[in-house]
Design a protein that fits this description.
With 1536 residues, the chain is α/β, with parallel strands linked by helices. The protein is 40% helix and 8% strand. The strands form 8 sheets. It has a 7-stranded parallel sheet. Strands 4-5-8-7-6-9 form a 6-stranded antiparallel β-barrel. A 3-stranded antiparallel sheet has the order 2-1-3. Strand 1 and strand 2 (22-26) form a beta hairpin. Helix 13 packs across helix 15 (256-280). The protein starts with 13 loop residues before the first strand and ends with a helix. The model is unreliable at 1-110, 283-293, 753-797, 811-825, 849-857, 1434-1438, 1469-1483 and 1530-1536 (pLDDT under 50).
C-alpha cells in the first residue's frame, strides 16, 4: 500500500526511505530513478516543512501530473490513488509536465543512484531526436549509470539501441551528438554490444532484422561524424556483426541489403584508415585541417551513377553526404575530380533544404519549418495528356485565407514530394502549369518525375514543396553527368588553372581582322547580317576601300602598340585592351564595374567576330556564336543590341518580353520553316509519323480511361460481347450465356423474373436513381470575400510581380505543328451498355401519364427492372469466394440466386477494370516512348534552324536543358554575359567539347552566384563563380576603368574602397543638379522597424519608408519632373505592394494612373474615383446629421442629402445594427431600418443546428420549421444499404439474418429482432500483429491491440474496466471507435426522455449498424421511424378536397383567375408526387399545404367583399384600390 504523509511544521520538505527501523533521507532524483520499479515507492515518505503551498506549486506537480498518484480516492488513472499506470509509465508523458518535472529534478544536487529505467527509455522514443540527445546527456538522467552497468537486461539493451539510433537523426544538435558519441562509444560499451549481438543471434531471431538495422544507423552516424575514433573502435564490432549476420542471411532471417550495409561500412572505415595514415605523414600546416574533411578523399562512388532526383535515403540519412570543397585557390586533379565536386555540391544545394524541412516536420516543429511548405490531405483528382506528356491534377486542402494564385507558392518548376507512408517511399513531381482559375479552386497541375505505375491514385498524400526552383538543377545535373572527362572543354584553364592563356586554335599568327565595322555599323558582312531562309531584311552597305584604311587589316595578335588608336576605334584605353583580349585569348575574362560598358564591349566583340567569320567558321561545319546569359531579361537586352548589325539571330526559349526579339524565337522560326516547307524532308516525315502514332495512342488512352470511368460510375449492365472479348468471363460460363437468343444476354440472366409479383424486393428496398458524380475539376465558386482580401488592383499587382518572377522560369514549351487540334474535336466513344439506370428511368417518365392497360403493364415491368437494377448494382461479394465460384466447372449460372448473380457480375466488372487499367499503363508507356522520340525529332528541327543562324542566344538553364543539341551544334565561340553571377556548374554545362574560344564578361565585385544553402556557399565555395575563381588563381583579365553612368557624388561611394582604378568619364560631370533637393545623393536613417509578421511570400514591408518615398516622389513631381523620370527600387515584394497601395500623387490629367484621385470635392471630401476616371458628381460619404430615428440613433446621411432629407424620410438611412436577441437566442442581423426600428425583425438566417431525431444536425435557417433530414440515410445491413434520404422512413430488410458464430446463430429476418443473445466468448482470431483479438466471438474485430495499442485502447474511460487484463471491447462500425463492453452497455441502456438514436459515447455519432446491440438499435429506431412517418402520413385528403371546392367557385376564378391557376398547379404537383413512388421526397409539406388552404380562403373572402362593393356601386378607383390591397396581401403570404 503506497502511503504519502505530510507534516506542516518543517521546512523545506524531505523525502525519506523507510526500510524496517532505518530512515534515510534521499533526493527526488533517486525517487525518479525508481520509475521502472514501482514497488520501491512503498518505502518512501515525504516530509514538508512550513509552506505546503510552495511545494504544491512546485515539486508536488511532478507527482500529481502522473496517473494513479493524485489525491483523493477512486478507480482509474486520473483521479485517485487506486488503479492506474505506475509512475514510470507516466514519465515524460506530455511536454508541459515534462518540462516542469525535468526542471524540478535539475534543481536538486543529490546524485542519482539508479540507472535509467525501461519505461524512461520507452518514453524517449516518443520524443524528438534533438530532445533525446539533451536528455541522455543530462546528469540526472541515469544514462551514464546505465552504460556502466555490467549486466544490462536484454530487453533494456534492445531498447537502448533503438534510443541511440533515434538520437542520431538530429540535425540541430550535431555538436551535442558528438558529445553523446564520445560518452557512449567507449571500449567497454563497444564490448558489451559485441557480446549482445550474439545473444540476438541465439535468442531474438524475430527481432534480428530490426535490431541490426537500428544498430547500423547508429554506427554509420558515429563513423561519419567521428571517423578518427571509429577507425580505432569499430573494426572489431563490425567483424562481430558480419560474423553474426552471415548465417542469418543464409537462413533468410535478414535481408541482403542489411548485410551489404555492414560490408560497405567496413570498407569505408578501411579506406578512411588508409587515408588517415597518409595524413599523419603530412607537414604541420596540412595537419591543421579538420579531422572529418573529405576534400582529399576519393569519392565513394561514380557521380555519373548517382540519381539526380532525391531518394528516400537522401531525405532521411543521418550522415552528411560525401562533399568536397570547390577548390577556389589551386587546381583540380583531373576533369573527373572537378565534375564530381561540382555535381555533388550542386545536388546537395537543392536536396538539403528538402531534407531539413522534412526532418523538421517529422520532429514536430510546426511553424518553425522554413525550408519547405507542407500540405496535408492532398489527393490526385485526375490526369490528362497535354503537350505530349501525362499531367495530373492535384487537389489541395488549403486555408481560404491563402490565395495560391497570388502567392509565391507552387510556381512553375517547383519540386514536390508526395508520400503516404511517412516518407518511407517517395514520389517526386514538379509544377507543370500555373493555371490561375484552377489555383482559385485549390488545384495544381503537376508532372511526375518518378515512376507512378504502382501509384494508388485514391490515397491521400502529404505533399512537401521545396521553395527551390528545381528545373535548373535538374537540367544542369543531367548535363554534368553527360560531360566526358576525356573531352573536357578548356581543361588547362578551368581544371588546372594554367595562367598563360593561348590564342584560339583557329586564330593563326599574323591573322588580320577587318575592324571597320566598329566605325561603320552598316558594313557588316551580308552572310552574317541576315538569313535569306527567314527573309529578315537588314540595311547593309558594301565597304569602300578608301574608308577607314587603318581599320581594314589589323593584325589582332600583334602587340597593342600596333593596333589602331583609341580615337580611331572610338574606345577608351581599357576598352581597347578588353577588345584585344576578347578577340585573341582562348579564355578571355573581362571585368566591368557598374556603368563601364560591359554589354557595349561584348556587342563590339561579337560584331567583329561575325564580320570576320571566315577566320573561325568552316563551310562544311557552320557554327554560330553562342551567347549565354543568366536571366531572360539580360539575354533579351544583349540580343536587342545585336539587332543593330544582324538579324540572323535565333533565341532559344519562348518567354521573351521583347517585341524586337519575339520574331527570332526558335518556335516562331521553326513554324515559319514548316509553313514554307524549309524543314528537311526526312525530319518532316519522321515528325509526321510520330505525331500520327501519338494521336492513335492518345485516342486509345482516352477511350480506355472513359471505359474505366464508366465502369466505376456503375451506370448499368455492360454488353456481354465486351466482357467476352476481354476474356473476363471464363469460357465454360460464356457457353451458358450464349444460349440466350436475345442480344442482351447479361440482362436476361441478371434481371430474369423481375416482375413485382415474383420479385419481392419492393417490400425490402425503395431505391432512388443514383446521383453519379464523375471526377471533375470544377468546384463551387467562392462568392464571399474573405477578410484581408486585396482589391482587384492589388491582385493585378500581385499577378504582375509573380508573372515577372515566373517568366524567367518558363522555358520553351514545344507546340504542335499542323492540325493537332483535331484531337480536341475527336469524340471518344463511351462504353456500350445493354441496359442503364438512366435509360430505364427515362422510359418510366415517358409512360407516367398514360392510363391504358398496356402502358400500365409496361410501367410495372420497367419499374421492377429499375428496382432490381439499382439493388443489383449495389451488391458486393468476397473476391476470393467469387474467384473460386467462377472456376467451378460444374457451376450452372441459371441456378444461382439473384444476389449471387449480381455478386458474380460485379466481380467480373472489377476484373474488367483491372484489365483496362493495365492496358492504359501499357499505352501510356508506349506514348511516352513516342513522345521522347518526337522530342528528339523536334530537337533536329531546332538544330537545323540554329545552324542557319549567325548568333544563338539562350539562358544557362536553356543551355543545360538542350545540352544534347549543343553537343551537336558544337559552337566554337561562346560569350557568357553576367558570368560572375552564374554558378560554376551552370557555366560548364553551357560549353561543349568543341569550344575553342570562351569570353566571360561580368563583375565578381557586384553580385555573386546565389546558392540555396548558405553553408555550401561560404564553407564549400559553391558561391564562388568560375569568373572569380579564375581571377583568384592568377589568370589574366582586363578591367574596364571608365564609368559612363553615375554622377561623381555616387561613384565616390565605390572608389577606392571597391574599385580602386575606377574613373569617371567626362560626360558624367555635366549632369544637372536635382531640383528641389540640396544634395544629389543622400542616405536616410530611421529607427522604425518593418512589420513583424511577414506575408506568405516571406517578404517584408515598412510603412514609414513607403510613405516617405511616396512623399519624396510627389515633391519631385511638383518640381517639374515627369513620372517616367522617377524610379523606385525595392528589394521586397511586400514593400512593392505597399507602395502600390499608397496614393501616387500624379497629376489628375494622367490617363494611365490607376491610383486614387488626389482631388477633393466642393464639400471637402476626397474623390472616390480612380485618378484616370471622371470625378464623383454626388458625394456619397456618410455624414452624421441631426436627425434621430425612434430608437434614438443619430442618422448618417450621404453627404449630398444633408439638409435635403429630414424627419421620417431620414429613418430609412438608419443603419445601426439591431443586435436584439431573438427568441431563438441568436442576435438579429438586421439594422434599424430593416427591422422597422425594432418592431418587426428580419428572419433569422443562422443555421438551426438542433439535433434531429436521426442524430444529424439541422442545417436549415433557424426561422424555418426543421424539415425532414436531407442527409444520406445511414441504415444498412450486410445485404444492402438504404439509399433514401435520412428523413424518409426506411423499410426493413427481408433477407435472413447472417449473424452467427460457432456458438450461436440468429434465425430471424435481418430487419427483425434477433432471436439470439450476443456471444460472450472471446474472439479466437489473431490481429495483423499476431496478438489475440480483444473483441467477442462473431463480432467485427476491433483494430486495436491490447499490447501494441495499449494507450489508445485505454485512453477513453467509461466505468474504468478498460485496464482489466481480461477486458473485452466492441467496435462501433459507424464511427470506428473501440469501446469497453461493460461501459458501452451501461451507456446504451440509459433511460432518457429524448427521442433519438443511440450514440457513441466518445464522439456522439449515431449507432445504426451493430449486430451485438441490434435489438437495442431496432427498439430505438422504431420510435425514430414513427417520428419520421408523421411527416409523410396521408391525413390531408379532406383538406385538399376543401381547397378544391373553394377554388371551383366561378366567381373567384373571374376575379382572381391567375392566383387560382397557381394554386391548382401546386395541388397538381402534390398529386403527381404522391403517386410517383420512385421520387425521394414530397415537394409540398403539410405546412405548405396549410398555407395554400389559407390563400384560398383569402381569395374567397376577397371575392365576397368585392361583390358587396360592386353592389353598392362604388367607383372603379375604389374597386381597383381594393384589388391592389388583395394583391399586396397575396404577395405578403408568398413572402411568408
Amino acid at each position: 500500500m503506497k502511503r504519502w504523509h505530510s507534516w506542516q511544521n518543517s521546512r523545506p520538505y524531505k523525502i525519506q526511505r523507510i526500510v524496517g527501523d532505518n530512515v534515510t533521507e534521499v533526493g527526488i532524483e533517486e525517487l525518479a530513478g525508481c520509475a521502472s520499479s514501482p514497488r520501491h515507492y512503498e518505502d518512501y515518505h515525504i516530509r514538508y516543512k512550513h509552506n505546503y503551498s510552495n511545494f504544491q506549486r512546485g515539486q508536488r506537480k511532478y507527482f500529481k501530473s502522473h496517473r494513479g498518484y493524485s489525491s483523493g480516492n477512486g478507480r482509474g488513472g486520473g483521479g485517485g490513488a487506486g488503479r492506474g499506470n505506475d509512475f514510470g509509465n507516466s514519465f515524460l508523458s506530455d511536454s508541459m509536465s515534462e518540462e516542469r518535472s525535468l526542471e524540478s529534478i535539475r534543481n536538486h544536487k543529490t546524485k542519482r543512484k539508479h540507472s535509467m529505467g525501461f519505461r524512461e527509455l520507452e518514453k524517449l522514443l516518443k520524443l524528438p531526436s534533438d530532445v533525446v540527445v539533451i536528455e541522455l546527456l543530462r546528469k540526472g538522467s541515469g544514462f551514464h549509470l546505465l552504460l556502466e552497468e555490467d549486466n544490462i537486461k536484454d530487453g533494456k539493451f534492445m531498447l537502448l539501441i533503438k534510443v541511440l539510433s533515434h538520437a542520431t537523426s538530429t540535425q540541430s544538435n550535431r555538436e551535442n551528438l558528438c558529445d553523446l558519441f564520445s560518452r557512449t562509444c567507449e571500449r567497454k560499451f563497444i564490448d558489451k554490444i559485441c557480446t549482445f549481438i550474439f545473444k540476438i543471434k541465439r535468442s531474438y531471431l524475430n527481432n534480428a532484422e530490426d535490431l541490426f538495422t537500428k544498430l547500423c544507423v547508429f554506427l554509420e552516424a558515429y563513423a561519419s561524424t567521428m571517423t578518427t575514433n571509429a577507425i580505432d573502435r569499430l573494426p572489431s564490432l563490425l567483424d562481430a556483426c558480419t560474423a553474426a549476420l552471415a548465417p542469418l542471411k543464409e537462413k533468410k532471417l535478414i535481408s541482403e541489403t542489411l548485410f551489404k550495409q555492414y560490408e560497405e561500412l567496413q570498407e569505408m572505415l578501411t579506406e578512411a584508415s588508409k587515408q588517415w595514415e597518409q595524413e599523419k605523414k603530412l607537414d604541420s600546416e596540412e595537419k591543421k585541417r579538420q579531422k572529418y574533411e573529405m576534400d582529399y578523399m576519393e569519392p565513394p562512388d561514380d557521380f555519373r551513377e548517382y540519381p539526380v532526383l532525391p531518394t528516400p535515403r537522401d531525405l532521411s540519412a543521418v550522415e552528411h553526404p560525401f562533399l568536397r570543397k570547390n577548390i577556389v585557390k589551386g587546381k583540380y586533379n583531373d576533369p573527373d575530380h572537378y565534375l564530381d565536386v561540382q555535381f555533388r555540391l550542386l545536388r546537395e544545394d537543392f536536396v538539403r533544404p528538402l531534407r531539413k524541412g522534412i526532418h523538421d516536420f517529422k520532429s514536430g516543429r510546426g511553424n518553425k519549418i522554413k525550408d519547405v511548405r507542407i500540405y496535408h490531405g492532398v489527393t490526385i483528382v485526375g490526369s490528362e495528356l497535354k503537350n505530349h506528356v501525362v499531367i495530373h491534377y492535384v487537389q489541395m486542402n488549403m486555408s481560404k485565407k491563402i490565395k495560391l494564385e497570388n502567392s509565391k507558392r507552387l510556381l512553375y518548376g517547383n519540386l514536390l514530394c508526395f508520400s503516404s507512408d511517412d516518407f518511407r517511399t517517395l514520389l517526386l513531381a514538379s509544377v507543370a502549369e500555373r493555371d490561375q482559375e484552377l489555383l482559385k479552386k485549390g488545384i495544381i497541375v503537376v508532372q511526375f518525375e518518378s515512376d507512378i505505375e504502382m501509384l494508388d491514385m485514391s490515397s491521400k498524400f502529404l505533399m512537401v514543396e521545396s521553395k527551390t526552383y528545381f528545373m535548373p538543377y535538374k537540367h544542369v545535373l543531367m548535363a554534368l553527368k553527360n560531360i566526358s572527362g576525356t573531352a573536357f572543354p578548356l581543361a588547362p584553364y578551368i581544371v588546372y588553372v594554367e595562367p598563360n592563356i593561348k590564342s584560339p586554335r583557329y586564330l593563326n599568327e599574323g591573322e588580320k581582322y577587318d575592324l571597320r565595322v566598329i566605325a561603320k555599323m552598316k558594313m557588316m558582312k551580308k552572310s552574317e547580317a541576315y538569313n535569306t531562309l527567314f527573309d529578315f531584311e537588314m540595311d547593309t552597305e558594301e565597304p569602300e576601300d578608301d574608308q577607314c584604311i587603318n581599320l581594314k587589316e589589323v593584325n589582332v595578335r600583334g602587340a597593342l602598340t600596333t593596333w589602331p588608336s583609341e580615337n580611331d576605334l572610338g574606345l577608351d584605353s581599357s576598352q581597347v585592351r578588353a577588345l584585344r583580349s576578347g578577340l585573341t585569348k582562348q579564355l578571355a575574362i573581362i571585368q566591368g564595374p557598374p556603368g563601364t560598358g560591359k554589354t557595349f564591349i561584348g556587342l563590339k566583340i561579337t560584331q567583329i567576330l561575325l564580320h570576320n567569320s571566315h577566320v573561325w567558321k568552316s563551310k562544311d561545319h557552320p557554327t554560330p556564336v553562342l551567347v549565354v546569359c543568366f536571366t531572360n531579361h539580360a539575354l533579351d537586352q544583349f540580343l536587342e543590341g545585336m539587332t543593330s548589325y544582324t538579324s540572323n539571330i535565333v533565341r532559344i526559349g519562348s518567354r521573351s518580353k521583347s517585341d524586337i526579339i519575339h520574331k527570332f524565337q526558335i518556335s516562331s522560326l521553326v513554324r515559319t520553316l514548316h509553313e514554307c516547307r524549309g524543314i528537311p524532308q526526312a525530319i518532316h516525315e519522321r515528325s509526321c509519323e510520330l505525331r500520327n502514332l501519338m494521336k492513335q495512342s492518345e485516342y486509345k488512352i482516352k477511350r480506355m480511361r472513359n471505359t474505366i470511368l464508366c465502369c466505376k460510375e456503375i451506370r448499368g449492365i455492360i454488353c456481354f460481347d465486351i466482357l467476352k472479348e476481354e476474356g473476363v468471363i471464363p469460357p465454360h460460363l460464356v457457353e451458358q450465356l450464349e444460349v440466350v437468343y436475345d442480344d442482351n444476354k447479361l440482362t436476361a440472366w441478371l434481371l430474369l423474373d423481375t416482375d413485382p409479383v415474383n420479385f419481392d424486393y419492393e417490400q425490402q428496398y425503395t431505391l432512388s436513381k443514383p446521383q453519379y458524380k464523375p471526377i471533375s475539376l470544377t468546384q463551387k465558386k467562392i462568392k464571399e470575400k474573405e477578410e484581408g482580401e486585396l482589391s482587384d488592383y492589388e491582385w493585378e499587382d500581385a499577378h504582375e510581380l509573380l508573372g515577372l518572377e515566373e517568366q524567367d522560369r518558363l522555358l520553351e514549351k514545344d507546340t504542335d505543328y499542323g492540325d493537332d487540334d483535331d484531337d480536341a474535336k475527336c469524340e471518344v466513344p463511351y462504353l456500350n451498355y445493354e441496359i442503364t439506370v438512366d435509360g430505364l428511368a427515362k422510359k418510366l417518365d415517358n409512360i407516367m401519364d398514360i392510363t391504358d392497360t398496356e402502358p400500365c403493364y409496361n410501367h410495372t415491368d420497367i419499374s421492377g427492372q429499375l428496382e432490381a437494377l439499382n439493388i443489383g448494382l449495389s451488391i458486393t461479394g468476397n473476391h476470393f469466394k467469387l474467384n473460386h465460384l467462377e472456376n467451378n466447372q460444374q457451376l450452372n449460372l441459371w441456378e444461382l440466386s439473384f444476389s449471387e448473380r449480381w455478386q458474380l457480375y460485379n466481380y467480373w466488372l472489377g476484373k474488367f477494370i483491372d484489365i483496362a487499367t493495365n492496358k492504359v499503363k501499357t499505352l501510356e508507356s508506349n506514348y511516352q516512348k513516342h513522345s521522347q522520340a518526337l522530342q528528339e525529332t523536334r530537337n533536329q528541327e531546332y538544330l537545323f534552324t540554329m545552324r542557319q543562324a549567325s548568333v544563338v542566344g539562350m539562358t544557362t538553364t536553356g543551355a543545360a536543358q538542350y545540352n544534347s543539341i549543343m553537343q551537336d551544334l558544337a559552337p566554337a565561340i561562346v560569350i557568357i554575359e553576367e558570368a560572375a553571377e552564374i554558378l560554376e556548374s551552370h557555366v560548364i554545362t553551357s560549353l561543349t567539347a568543341n569550344c575553342q574560344h570562351l569570353i566571360l564578361i561580368g563583375d565578381h565585385q557586384q553580385l555573386r552566384p546565389s546558392a540555396t544553402v548558405y553553408e555550401l556557399a561560404t564553407k564549400y565555395g559553391l558561391g564562388t563563380s568560375l569568373f572569380e575563381r579564375l581571377i583568384k588563381n592568377g589568370l589574366a583579365y582586363e578591367t574596364l576603368q571608365y564609368q559612363h553612368r553615375m554622377r561623381p557624388s555616387i561613384s565616390r561611394l565605390l572608389v577606392p574602397s571597391i574599385y580602386p582604378q575606377l574613373k569617371n568619364h567626362p560626360s558624367v560631370d555635366n549632369y544637372p543638379n536635382i531640383k528641389g533637393i540640396t544634395k544629389n545623393s543622400f542616405f536616410i536613417s530611421h529607427d522604425i522597424p518593418e512589420r513583424e509578421d511577414s506575408d506568405d511570400n516571406n517578404s517584408h514591408e515598412n510603412q514609414y519608408e513607403a510613405e516617405f518615398v511616396t512623399g519624396l516622389c510627389r515633391h519631385l513631381i511638383l518640381q517639374g519632373y515627369s513620372s517616367n523620370q522617377i524610379t523606385i527600387l525595392t528589394p521586397y515584394s511586400g514593400q512593392f505592394f505597399l507602395l502600390r497601395k499608397i496614393e501616387c500623387h500624379l497629376p489628375a490629367t494622367n490617363r494611365k494612373c490607376n491610383g486614387k484621385c488626389p482631388k477633393r470635392l466642393p464639400c471637402g471630401h476626397p474623390c472616390a474615383e480612380r485618378c484616370m476616371d471622371v470625378c464623383t458628381v454626388t458625394c456619397k460619404k456618410l455624414v452624421m446629421s441631426t436627425n434621430k430615428c425612434p430608437k434614438g440613433h443619430y442618422i448618417k446621411l450621404p453627404c449630398h442629402l444633408i439638409g435635403k432629407v429630414n424627419g421620417e424620410d431620414a429613418w430609412v438611412y438608419c443603419k445601426e445594427p439591431c443586435n436584439q436577441v431573438l427568441n431563438c437566442d441568436h442576435n438579429c442581423v438586421g439594422d434599424c431600418h430593416r427591422c422597422f426600428q425594432g418592431r418587426i425583425h428580419v428572419s433569422c438566417l443562422q443555421p438551426c443546428r438542433k439535433p434531429l431525431v436521426c442524430g444529424h444536425i439541422c442545417k436549415y435557417p433557424c426561422s424555418r420549421e426543421c424539415p425532414p433530414c436531407q442527409e444520406d440515410c445511414q441504415w444498412r445491413c450486410s445485404h444492402s444499404r438504404c439509399r433514401k434520404k435520412c428523413g424518409v422512413p426506411c423499410l426493413s430488410c427481408k433477407m435472413f439474418c447472417n449473424w452467427k458464430c460457432s456458438h450461436l446463430m440468429c434465425e430471424k429476418l435481418c430487419g427483425e429482432m434477433c432471436s439470439r443473445e450476443p456471444c460472450d466468448k472471446p474472439c479466437p482470431k489473431k490481429l495483423q500483429c499476431s496478438h489475440p483479438c480483444v473483441g467477442f466471438c462473431g463480432d467485427p474485430c476491433p483494430p486495436l491491440c491490447r499490447i501494441c495499442n495499449v494507450d489508445e485502447l485505454k485512453e477513453f474511460v467509461l466505468l474504468g474496466f478498460e485496464e482489466d487484463h481480461d477486458a473485452r471491447f466492441v467496435l462501433l462500425e459507424d464511427c470506428g471507435h473501440t469501446i469497453e463492453v461493460q461501459g458501452l452497455e451501461g451507456w446504451l441502456n440509459q433511460q432518457t426522455d429524448e427521442i433519438g438514436m443511440k450514440t457513441c459515447p466518445k464522439c456522439r455519432k449515431p449507432i445504426y449498424n451493430n449486430h451485438r446491440y441490434q435489438n437495442i438499435i431496432l427498439k430505438t429506431y422504431e420510435i425514430v421511424n414513427a417520428v419520421k412517418n408523421k411527416y409523410y402520413k396521408a391525413q390531408s385528403e379532406i383538406m385538399m378536397k376543401d381547397i378544391e371546392m373553394v377554388l371551383q367557385d366561378p366567381e373567384i376564378a373571374d376575379c382572381f383567375g391567375s392566383h387560382v391557376r397557381k394554386l391548382h398547379e401546386k395541388l397538381s404537383i402534390r398529386t403527381s408526387m404522391k403517386h410517383n413512388r420512385h421520387n425521394k421526397q414530397i415537394l409540398i409539406t403539410e405546412g405548405e399545404l396549410g398555407l395554400i388552404q389559407f390563400q384560398a380562403q383569402v381569395l374567397k373572402k376577397a371575392t365576397s367583399i368585392l361583390k358587396s362593393l360592386s353592389e353598392k356601386r362604388l367607383g372603379s378607383q375604389v374597386l381597383a384600390l381594393f384589388i391592389l390591397m388583395v394583391h399586396m396581401r397575396w404577395l405578403t403570404l408568398k413572402f411568408i
